[in-house]
């Protein structure tokens, strides 16, 4: 195998399907886009993504190939797999794996969340090492923030009401800079300048994480329930 260099994965998501676009590993896969489409959900409620069309996409050093991103529950990690060369994944080749990104999400982590580790046994150590923000991008139907947060218990900082219907109020912060709201699987659904009143009326019912960043770059996170 020649050098494996992951350059880009970008999202194309719609109501009908969730997709991840992969461009990289140019010595093996050429400089082209591979479109992953969500094909289903496994028994552990993790999304499964496979490139399309199945079989026949040129990828230079590998001939033709297809890829799959899926969860390996036995090893508690996300895996980036290559097929056997005919569009099937009976005995696929492991290219990368990520066991440190947020494993509670149904979507795979981005290249900056946890570590996508190169499987040097399969690649011959020619892949440029683990995925980083320098040698690759991994965006799209992926997540990049951990929701394994603990509720802030500092008495000076509070959000209320919780649960909330329309407006969250924040007390105890006078140097706030930005707010970000993430849904339960880590997708950013709202971002805005800091305000002590946040309109959440447009959010669907569910559990969210509110992240407040201050002007001195402190970060405070709160779980809340939208009714």
From TrEMBL:
<protein>
    <submittedName>
        <fullName>Por secretion system C-terminal sorting domain-containing protein</fullName>
    </submittedName>
</protein>
<feature type="domain" description="Secretion system C-terminal sorting">
    <location>
        <begin position="159"/>
        <end position="219"/>
    </location>
</feature>
<keyword id="KW-0732">Signal</keyword>
<feature type="signal peptide">
    <location>
        <begin position="1"/>
        <end position="17"/>
    </location>
</feature>
<dbReference type="Pfam" id="PF18962">
    <property type="entry name" value="Por_Secre_tail"/>
</dbReference>
<dbReference type="InterPro" id="IPR026444">
    <property type="entry name" value="Secre_tail"/>
</dbReference>
